Amino acid sequence: MTNAGSVAKRVRMVVAYDGTNYHGWQIQKNGITIEAELNRCLTELLGEEIQVIGASRTDSGVHALGNVAVFDTGSPIPSEKISYALNQRLPEDIRVQCSEEVPSDWHPRHCVSRKTYEYRIYRAEFPMPTKRLYSYFTYHALDVERMRKAAECLVGEHDFKSFCQAGAQVESTVRKIYTIQVEEQGRDLVIRVCGNGFLYNMVRIIAGTLIEIGQGKREPDAMPCILAAGRREAAGPTAPAHGLTLVKYEFEL
Questions:
Q1: At CA 91, angle to CA 86 and CA 95, rounded to 5?
Q2: What is the pLDDT of residues 129-157, one digit of tens each?
Q3: Which of 84, 100, 181, 210 is the most buried (most CB within 10 A)?
Q4: Under 8 Å between Cβ of 190 and 119
Q5: Are 48 and 75 in contact (CB under 8 A)?
Q6: Residue 198 in 3-state DSSP?
Q7: Predicted confidence (pLDDT) at residue 23 exceeds the cutoff of 70
Q8: Is the distance from CB of 42 to CB of 8 less than 8 angstroms?
Q9: Cβ contact 239:211 at 8 Å
Q10: DSSP class of residue 58?
């Protein structure tokens, strides 16, 4: 909805947030969400009803450094200035990193893109309080080389049905992973996955499966069998949400 007599424009934003206090991206009846906060603050700022369209509907507790959203507005405020004004109204755990005008038919879910997620694991004898909201803690030793060997099996185009939460409504469970890295950063272990799209809980299930392999509960060469099974119960557990961060989106022109 835009003001009478105004010419609508489409604005794209890059949005970063700490997902700890939110019930995910998408509007929910039972709790506050990132989408709801953006709609509320944009509507107040621009004086018209605004409904954003997000590129990724991250789950409850998941964080983002670079989720993408668009909205239409008839406001005369320059598109690149909206981020400055909006950040004055948003809660401090949500910040728009930039805003810009895009073609009126540009849609974040209807164009070719690459999405990168990171799952962080903190390995130590005891938890570190400052990491508790952003990393999964384990005191179990993890064999990183075993995890890397298993992760290599996931690169390429596969049917990832085994890594999709049961009951998810999708037309196809085929996705393409461009790269997957298991990187040590001191006591932190980062699983970084870049792909053309991800199924519901896919990255968290991948992380949970790799953790089991790192603990020696499964063999690395079991990964092709897990893929081929096409059943959720063939893969490992879904790792907790707070270790996951949507790092960035890259769109092809």
A1: 55
A2: 999 999 999 999 999 999 999 999 999 99
A3: 210
A4: yes
A5: yes
A6: coil
A7: yes
A8: no
A9: yes
A10: P
Instruction: Please give the Cα distance from 120 to 143 (Å, whole number).
Output: 15
Q: Alpha carbon of 155 to those of 18, 106, 177: distances in Å?
A: 29, 29, 5
Average pLDDT over residues 56-84: 96
Phi-psi region of 35 (alpha: psi -120 to 50; beta: other; left: phi over 0): alpha
Q: How crowded is residue 230: how many other Cβ atoms within 10 Å of its Cβ?
A: 13
Greater confidence (111 vs 67) lies with: 67
Q: 144-162 burial, b for 16+ CB within 10 Å, e for fewer?
A: eebbbbbbebbeeebebbb
- Read off the pLDDT of residues 84-138 as tens digits, 9 standing for 90 and up: 999 999 999 999 999 999 999 999 888 888 999 999 999 999 999 999 999 999 9
Give CA–CA dist 105/223, Å, rounded: 40
| Spatial CB neighbours of 246, under 8 Å, sequence gap ≥ 6 | 56, 58, 62, 63, 64, 65, 66, 67, 115, 116, 117
Is the model's pLDDT at 160 over the cut of 60? yes
Which residue's structure tokens are 């401090």? 92
Cite the active site residues. Answer: 59
pLDDT of residue 253: 56
Helix (H) or strand (E) holding 82: helix 79-87
Residues 153, 131: Cα–Cα separation, whole Å? 30
